[in-house]
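Action item from last meeting closed. Structure (323 res):
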């Protein structure tokens, strides 16, 4: 046994350099593959990596954007953000959007998936396609279309007046009391289809014999869902919730085209605050906007870490997962 283990150790040591040499040889032989990847790597570096790193540098500078370079001012931008009511207003609007829109999207998509997963539902393929169509439509286009639909003279407002729900026409996107909620409703409608697909995939993992056993025990439809189906969907619930949470913080295109953050900053989420400060203000403040972007990016990173931990925990809860 000693001689065998020694031989195995010697062979493992001699095989390691061969593996490394073969990898280098493969890189040399197939260099043309990486040549095709070069445009993507260059584009990713110029339009993703460089702006990300540059924003951290600009966050510590006083730079209005007119000069070639700014002046270093340390933590002044972050101190100013701490006392800026418009920044905290935008931060609060983003959190409010998240708290309302994300659970609504998750729950409605689950109900829709349960309906489409039922054997009694006709034309399932047609309904799945119809609910998924808004997902592949550009958010900016949807924002422009719904600006017209939600106008005071739009069909939605006129229908509410005709039905007697409101006495006068309401411009939902120009009203401070409804502008944010109009954005929430349109965002949920647009992305409902992708979350529905997630839930449909999750429902396929529930064994059919589990449903049959619950029905044989006399469980009602609600009892079967609450005590059998939902506990098995908890790992997927964690994953879907975390994915939708990150998605709810990236609503710039939709909100910018629908409301532009107005009226009176009533629907200005943090992304619109950054855009307005950097590009739409009378005097652009790129350093100040970069500091806000850094804080927003740190929040997104924290959520991404939570998402990764949640997905790992969810996988351990799934059948066959590592506990």
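Sequence:
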């Amino acid at each position: 046994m000693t001689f065998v283990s020694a031989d195995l150790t010697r062979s493992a040591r001699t095989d390691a350099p061969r593996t490394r040499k073969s990898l280098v040889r493969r890189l040399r032989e197939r260099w043309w593959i990486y040549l095709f990847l070069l445009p993507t790597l260059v584009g990713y570096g110029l339009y993703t990596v460089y702006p990300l790193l540059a924003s951290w540098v600009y966050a510590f500078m006083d730079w209005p954007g007119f000069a070639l370079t700014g002046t270093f001012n340390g933590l002044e931008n972050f101190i100013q953000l701490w006392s800026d009511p418009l920044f905290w207003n935008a931060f609060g609007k983003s959190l409010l959007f998240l708290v309302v829109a994300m659970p609504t999207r998750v729950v409605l998509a689950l109900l829709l998936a349960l309906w489409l997963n039922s054997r009694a539902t006709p034309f399932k393929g047609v309904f799945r396609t119809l609910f998924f169509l808004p997902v592949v439509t550009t958010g900016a286009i949807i924002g422009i279309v719904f600006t017209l639909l939600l106008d005071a003279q739009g069909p939605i407002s006129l229908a509410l007046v005709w039905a007697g729900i409101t006495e006068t026409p309401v411009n939902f996107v120009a009203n401070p009391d409804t502008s944010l909620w109009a954005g929430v409703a349109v965002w949920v409608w647009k992305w409902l289809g992708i979350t529905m697909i997630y839930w449909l995939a999750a429902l396929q993992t529930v064994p059919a014999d589990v449903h049959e056993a619950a029905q044989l025990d006399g469980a009602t439809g609600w009892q079967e869902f609450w005590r059998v189906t939902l506990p098995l969907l908890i790992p997927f619930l964690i994953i879907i919730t975390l994915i939708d949470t990150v998605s709810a913080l990236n609503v710039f295109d939709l909100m910018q085209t629908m409301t532009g953050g107005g009226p009176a900053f009533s629907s200005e989420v943090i992304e619109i605050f950054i855009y307005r400060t950097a590009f739409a203000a009378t005097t652009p403040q790129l350093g100040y906007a970069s500091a806000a972007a850094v804080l927003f990016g740190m929040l997104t990173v924290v959520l991404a870490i939570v998402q990764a931990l949640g997905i790992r925990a969810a996988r351990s809860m799934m059948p066959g997962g590592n506990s």
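Note appended to the action item: Residues 1-9, 11-19 have pLDDT under 50 and may be disordered.
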